[in-house]
Each structure stands twice: as structure tokens, then as C-alpha cells.
């Protein structure tokens, strides 16, 4: 099933007037904010990253890690969740986030230090300095 299914679920949801966004994997209306440490869009209430969400106004399905419009590129898995690409997001007990999407990797800790690696190389950002 593709994002069309998500759009149908969205319009059938009774909570659709409460928020401008809809989290596909939780099935709930949400308010989004950008997390200052990770840079990810997170649910304002739970402060958890949102993997895939629907913008109710534009009816676009978006990828939480990048904000990229991914209409038609979402599949429903056997366990009922929705998936896009090969993204993995993990949070450990110390509040550190690790994101992996294909060759792209990013690690953020609660002190604001960020390490990333992609096809352009490795970078480390700490206290507003990038190496």
C-alpha cells in the first residue's frame, strides 16, 4: 500500500481537525516542533522523532528526518506500520540519537555534539564549530 492509503486513513480519522499533522505510525494527530539537538521534527507532546507524517493542509506525506515529500513512496509493512527507505532511528538510555539511512549516518548527543558521515565525508560539530 502506498501513501494513497495514508491519505485515505487521514481523512477517515475523527481527530483530523485537532492538528495540522498526522503521524502515520501512531495514527494520531500531532503538533510538530524541530528538536534543537537532533534537528529532527518531533512530536511536541512526546518529544519523540516522527518518522513519517502527513501535512493535512497540503495532503503531502513527509519523511521526518529530512522533511522531504515522499508521496507514493511509503509502504505498509506486515506488522501494520509504515516504512520509507532504509531509515533507522535509535535513542539510547543517555538521550543520544543515532540515525542511519543508507550511506548517511548521524549521531547526536544531549550536549549538542553531532557527528555525521555521508558521500561527502565525515563531519563533527561541537559548540557551533564544524570540523
Your description of this structure?
- Strand 11 and strand 12 (114-118) form a beta hairpin.
- It is globular and about 40 Å long.
- The protein has one helix spanning 3-12, and strands at residues 21-23, 28-30, 32-34, 41-43, 52-55, 60-63, 75-76, 82-83, 87-91, 97-101, 104-108, 114-118, 121-126, 129-130.
- By secondary structure, it is mainly beta.
- Mean pLDDT is 78; it is low at 1-6 and 10-17.
- Strands 9-10-11-12-13-14 form a six-stranded antiparallel beta sheet, with no helix packed on it.
Percentage of residues in helical conformation: under 10%
Taken in chain order, the helices and strands follow as HEEEEEEEEEEEEEE
Q: Average the pLDDT over all residues and give the rounded result.
A: 78
Strand count, sense and closure of the main sheet? 6 strands, antiparallel
Give a quick precis of the structure.
The protein is mostly beta strands and 131 residues long. It has one helix at residues 3-12, and strands at residues 21-23, 28-30, 32-34, 41-43, 52-55, 60-63, 75-76, 82-83, 87-91, 97-101, 104-108, 114-118, 121-126, 129-130.
Amino acid at each position: 500500500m502506498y501513501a494513497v492509503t495514508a491519505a485515505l486513513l487521514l481523512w477517515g480519522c475523527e481527530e483530523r481537525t485537532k492538528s495540522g499533522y498526522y503521524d502515520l505510525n501512531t495514527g494520531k494527530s500531532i503538533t510538530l516542533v524541530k528538536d534543537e539537538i537532533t534537528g529532527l521534527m518531533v512530536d511536541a507532546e512526546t518529544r519523540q522523532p516522527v518518522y513519517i507524517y502527513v501535512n493535512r493542509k497540503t495532503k503531502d506525506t513527509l519523511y521526518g528526518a529530512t522533511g522531504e515529500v515522499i508521496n507514493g513512496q511509503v509502504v505498509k509493512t506486515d506488522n501494520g506500520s509504515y516504512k520509507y527507505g532504509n531509515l533507522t532511528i535509535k535513542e539510547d538510555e543517555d538521550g543520544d540519537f543515532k540515525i542511519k539511512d543508507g550511506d548517511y549516518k548521524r549521531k547526536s548527543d544531549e550536549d549538542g555534539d553531532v557527528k555525521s558521515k555521508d558521500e561527502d565525508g565525515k563531519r563533527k560539530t561541537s559548540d557551533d564549530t564544524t570540523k
